[in-house]
Design goal:
The protein is built from 18 helices and 14 strands. By secondary structure, it is of the alpha+beta class. Strands 1-2-10-7-3 form a five-stranded mixed beta sheet, sandwiched between helices. A three-stranded antiparallel beta sheet has the order 4-14-11. The protein has a two-stranded antiparallel sheet with strand order 5-6. The longest helix is centred in the middle third of the chain and has 32 residues. It is globular. About 40% of the residues are buried.
Length: about 450
């Protein structure tokens, strides 16, 4: 358990728990970057509750207990900044949005932005979510092979385009998605990370990110200017941001742009990945898929789902919970200590960086029992199997919990319910599925699947 900050001790406490020996110059960075989620899992199995790795010369403490997650995220959150706020690459592209700002600025901005995600406002997007999904399904044909990952990215981006900007023109949204993909997939090289080495050329990762950012900025700032000139409320998030005000405080064009960038990046990536991994797991577990289809048939009997149907679809929710347990779209959270503090026998100095991985905690047998098994029934409250608090945190927690969580949860359930009533995807035989851990957890090669007509027999 976490000891209180400043608790008197009779002997000096060590500053860092043990971990693998760092190599000169790079530390443990090379091993870490080969497959980050699996590397963190190996560290947990080798060192237990905590471990220290080195990124270059800088120590990073890995925390592997729910009570540590609770302490950093909810019990003492003001002593920690998000490591995303210190990520120059993220700030260069996303700007000063909710993901990258800290302290009082974060609290003020979140209060201003929160009305855009009010429950009634979010539920107002439900019909468009289902409508766009049905339009996508009209282009599908039984027996064809497609990349479900790309299909879900396209669909969720279209939904984001409508809910954020009230834009329905597919070519505009597709171009926006193309540029966001360039920004997200053009990862910083090891040299760029360690030495802040930026080479702005068309073929470098940094150059691709900056070019994508310029295209996105042009699109968003032009839209902001048009909206400010018209003064119309279009019923979307952008209208809410432009009208947001608290006392004398309101959002500048730069702040609106930065929030919109964050919402576009997070708003379609997380749901698309969650659905992609859900279809992958359902293809591996046909008995679960049959149960889910039976629930959908019993409640909906072929009609499109709506918000009011969701409480009657508990198994649908359990399937998505279990999918995000095994393949959390956000797979790691980082924090940096502002002041020194003590935690479970260690004295951590100010400036210490910490990582808490959803991938690792969601798969620990000591917390979940049959942790590697895809078993949605564990989420049935009548089974008394719910995990310890903070063993499951796909949307983070505390003051920085994902502001779009209600939107994402509703969207995932509606889209899954709509798609599975019509088609059941199965994995292409022999297709190799690998992890691509970027800001979110993507499948490295997409997800090639064959779509078959859903039957209820």
């Amino acid at each position: 358990m976490a000891t209180a900050v400043g608790t008197p001790t009779t002997q000096p406490l060590p500053s860092f728990p043990p971990g693998p020996k760092p190599k000169p110059l790079f530390g443990n960075l090379l091993e870490f970057t080969r497959n980050q989620p699996l590397y963190l899992q190996r560290m947990q199995r080798a060192y237990g509750k905590m471990a220290t790795i080195h990124i270059g010369k800088a120590p990073v403490v890995l925390l592997f207990r729910p009570e540590y997650v609770r302490y950093l995220l909810t019990e003492n959150p003001r002593n920690f900044t998000s490591i995303q706020s210190r990520d120059r690459g993220l700030k260069e592209t996303l700007g000063e949005g909710l993901l990258t700002i800290e302290g009082e600025a974060h609290r003020q901005q979140r209060r201003l932005v929160q009305p855009a995600f009010h429950r009634k406002r979010v539920e107002g997007y439900a019909d468009d979510m289902v409508r766009y999904t049905l339009e996508m399904l009209d282009t599908w044909h039984a027996g064809e092979e497609l990349d479900i990952a790309r299909a879900m990215q396209t669909l969720t981006l279209r939904i984001v385009g409508k809910s954020l900007f009230n834009i329905e023109r597919a070519e505009l949204i597709n171009e926006l998605g193309k540029q966001f993909t360039r920004v997200i997939e053009s990862r910083a090289s090891i040299l760029e990370r360690l030495f802040d080495l930026k080479i702005n050329l068309p073929f470098t990762g940094y150059g691709k990110r900056m070019d994508g950012k310029r295209h996105i900025d042009h699109f968003i700032y032009q839209l902001i200017a048009e909206r400010r000139a018209s003064g119309k409320d279009m019923g979307d998030v952008l209208s809410m941001l432009l009208a947001a005000q608290e006392g004398e405080m309101h959002l500048s064009d730069q702040q609106v742009r930065d929030h919109v960038m964050t919402f576009v990046a997070a708003g379609h990536e997380t749901t698309a990945n969650a659905l992609t991994w859900t279809f992958y797991l359902l293809a591996q577990h046909p008995e679960v898929c049959r149960k889910l289809i039976a629930e959908l048939h019993s409640v909906l009997n072929g009609r499109a789902p709506g918000v009011n149907d969701l409480p009657s679809l508990p198994y649908t929710e359990w399937v998505l919970n279990e999918s995000m347990r095994l393949y959390p779209p956000a797979w790691v959270i980082g924090r940096r200590a502002i002041n020194a503090f003590e935690l479970d026998g260690y004295h951590f100095p100010a400036g210490t960086t910490f990582m808490m991985s959803q991938w690792v905690l969601h798969r620990m047998p000591e917390l979940w029992g049959d942790a590697e098994n895809f078993r949605p029934e564990r989420w049935n409250p009548e089974n008394n199997e719910l995990p310890p608090q903070w063993a499951y945190f796909p949307f983070g927690g505390g003051p920085r919990i994902c502001i779009g969580m209600p939107f994402a949860q509703m969207e995932a359930r509606l889209l899954l319910a709509t798609i599975l009533q019509h088609y059941t995807p199965r994995l292409v035989p022999g297709f190799k599925v690998e992890l691509l851990p970027l800001v979110t957890l993507r499948p490295k090669h997409g997800m090639r699947m064959i779509i078959e007509k859903t039957t209820t027999s």
